[in-house]
């Protein structure tokens, strides 16, 4: 959500930011909509003010026993009162038109975000190579999982359709171990507070984090009033909706391990084999609520927290700064962490860490009261994967596979695996 007053004050800067996003100039359109809203508001207010003034005149006319004048004034009041609902409706509609238009426009990128049209414009920020020898190639995760008899796509398809999986036995335990390891790391070493949030949320929560209205087709509706969360970013960020925090409370840092649900609209034909693109998956989410002057450093801190997961798993990865044409709708700046997948012989995204500025806070009306100065200000929000559990499972399977087809358990996960050293027992 954008501040129309800021757009009025510097329309060129707003248009230039949108140009970097690949959009045309919109400031003139938005200012015109705001002018229409102001005119409708003025008309409704003038109607009410005139009615108030006439009420006093009627009292004076009656006191002076001028019944003719009183009747004339009362007739005008009746006419104005009859016009009132239409003027109020026009005021409401003009405000809604402006708000809807503002809500449809993506966040402005930070000045240091590289400009580009798509993923080809992304820039490598840094890379990490673990102590283990990097596998150049190998079996894909679904080949390993199906050979183990512990990854069943057919059974999942029979009950749920495409893009679902059933994990069994040691693979199910390995996925659980990964999630628990990540939560313990983020709460024990990185200062995040664990939250067990609802996974059903209302329209207002989805609007607050900008999944609605633009990305409605990517979501799963649950009944008449709720949505299944696409990420725990939604409930974690909305913990501060419609509230005014004190500056002393900030930053707030939350983490949660939840199932996530995505319709994957428009992804037909992409990653149809395996677990890379599922309708349902587990993810550990990181969310920070900060003051504006802290948000840039908090973004780097969050990125480091997500990287720590992969470093402890000793996985090779790289961090990419997304360009203006590839970053998300609500983001000002995004880092993607891409982990090496030897089965595919390429890097794949496993985490995305974004700073959103006050974009989501405006949609949620989430503010804080500074120690100095008057008036409440909007907080800044950040979110990131810490990390996607299913993709971490894929990365471990593919990077820790052995020539005999077994998969070694990373040392950091062994305490969570009850002493299991390897996943073995290949069928073929």
Automatic annotation (TrEMBL):
Record: residues binding ATP: 262-264, 349-352
> Carries keyword Aminoacyl-tRNA synthetase?
yes
- Listed binding positions for L-serine are 231-233, 285, 385
UniProt subcellular location: Cytoplasm
Its pathway, per UniProt, is: Aminoacyl-tRNA biosynthesis; selenocysteinyl-tRNA(Sec) biosynthesis; L-seryl-tRNA(Sec) from L-serine and tRNA(Sec): step 1/1
What the entry lists under InterPro entries is as follows: aa-tRNA-synt_IIb (IPR002314), aa-tRNA-synth_II (IPR006195), aa-tRNA-synth_II/BPL/LPL (IPR045864), Ser-tRNA-ligase_type_1 (IPR002317), Ser-tRNA-synth_1_N (IPR015866), SerRS_1_N_sf (IPR042103), SerRS_core (IPR033729), tRNA-bd_arm (IPR010978)
Which key words are in the record? Aminoacyl-tRNA synthetase, ATP-binding, Coiled coil, Cytoplasm, Ligase, Nucleotide-binding, Protein biosynthesis
The reaction(s) annotated as catalysed by this protein in its Swiss-Prot or TrEMBL entry are: tRNA(Sec) + L-serine + ATP = L-seryl-tRNA(Sec) + AMP + diphosphate + H(+); tRNA(Ser) + L-serine + ATP = L-seryl-tRNA(Ser) + AMP + diphosphate + H(+)
Q: What are the GO MF terms of this UniProt record? A: serine-tRNA ligase activity
Residue runs in coiled coils: 61-90
State its Enzyme Commission number(s). 6.1.1.11
| Pfam families to which the protein is assigned, alphabetical | Seryl_tRNA_N, tRNA-synt_2b
- Has UniProt tagged this entry with the keyword Translocase? no
All copies of the Aminoacyl-transfer RNA synthetases class-II family profile domain together span 173-410
Q: Top enzyme class of this protein?
A: ligase
* Similarity comment: Belongs to the class-II aminoacyl-tRNA synthetase family. Type-1 seryl-tRNA synthetase subfamily.
The text the record gives for the protein's domains is:
Consists of two distinct domains, a catalytic core and a N-terminal extension that is involved in tRNA binding.
This protein's assembly is summarised as: Homodimer. The tRNA molecule binds across the dimer.
Function text: Catalyzes the attachment of serine to tRNA(Ser). Is also able to aminoacylate tRNA(Sec) with serine, to form the misacylated tRNA L-seryl-tRNA(Sec), which will be further converted into selenocysteinyl-tRNA(Sec).
Instruction: Please report the name of this protein according to its UniProt entry.
Output: Serine--tRNA ligase
Q: Which organism is it from?
A: Methylobacterium marchantiae
